[in-house]
């Protein structure tokens, strides 16, 4: 269902669609026309810039990757030619780097293919009616957008990229929520590295790894003699990170006393060393992170509500890997293989059947677990090709479809005079059926390794269709 947007001053908004692929242009152009927009189209970046020199557009939707000049250059030129024009970047290669660059160049927003057309129309409507011009930050050639490891096309990740890019341009306190292994510290580092604080320190602290006393002494510092072992005055991490960014992970496990101390730091922008009455002014950006919902904890009085509201000025939610879809898992797997190649100087390939199996695994350890899995498989594979048998056993046990694991209750062994290899395979299926798919128990009965069972099951999937007798 297409959304018809209201017109300002009874004139339709002028929209320019830029894409070198005709199908992609039409996918945007037709719905926009049906929604009442005055739409023009360009087949490349040069043509788009030429059109922009002679005509004012309210909104420009431009693909990023085009053969003549990139969409990022289109964004840059329209910011120079017509600062009031809102440019929306569109790409099939969703990544944090692209989002950061698009926002840095001055794009109004960023969307990834494949997109929901109603959501795009709603975004175009907001852009067209946005009456004030947002001043874009000047691009800084010193910024390094490479190898963040945060890639993917899923809508949740694209949303996280955009929020990260916006956060990098502000000094607001940020709260990053997500399960362990989703990349919270990577997001925090990306915010810091693409902010005006990039040349100052970035300090990461795992709050759950320290006792309350140790955590406070590490963060706030202490004076000589303030407690046993305090032989000298010592500055805390807040002071040593002055001008930079401090990342506080696992905040949900901190005590109410520590939360009160942290709240004072955020409110007063000063710290007081343990044992001292002197307050020291600091200029530190705080990025907090948690693997549980702090708002729910605050509602149950398990976390200070005032600290939660102070932390969550800007909240970025990172989805678990199991919710990001098969495409993101494939992109990440290939990304980690390229990383392995850089680190070890050895190019390793991965079979499509392996990617399909990885997409069925629930990934309780999220992206971190996937990276470790790919590194393990690359290290043990033969002939530089990762096969199903190179994956850790836990992956195979939880990801294989039920039809591969449990044979029918009754298995014919010799009625059709099978070959010895076929007879072995059927016997494995029979034992699996009797053990209700328990591969460990089946391997024990058969006195073989569990991986051998998977090889038998793989052979059953590759069994040729029976041919009719001539």
Description:
The chain is an alpha/beta fold and 470 residues long. It folds into four domains: 14-149, Response regulator (Rossmann fold, 3-Layer(aba) Sandwich); 170-317, P-loop containing nucleotide triphosphate hydrolases (Rossmann fold); 321-399, Helicase, Ruva Protein, domain 3; 404-461, Arc Repressor Mutant, subunit A (Orthogonal Bundle). The protein is built from 20 helices and 16 strands. The chain has helices at 22-34, 45-54, 71-81, 96-105, 117-128, 155-168, 184-193, 212-220, 237-240, 256-268, 294-299, 305-311, 326-344, 352-360, 366-380, 393-399, 402-405, 420-434, 439-446, 450-461, and strands at 14-18, 38-42, 59-63, 86-91, 109-112, 174-177, 202-206, 221-222, 234-235, 245-249, 270-272, 279-281, 285-290, 314-317, 349-350, 385-386. The strands form five sheets. The protein has a five-stranded parallel β-sheet with strand order 2-1-3-4-5, sandwiched between helices. It has a five-stranded parallel β-sheet with strand order 7-10-13-6-14. A two-stranded antiparallel sheet has the order 8-9. The radius of gyration is 28 Å and the shape is flat. The two termini are 56 Å apart.
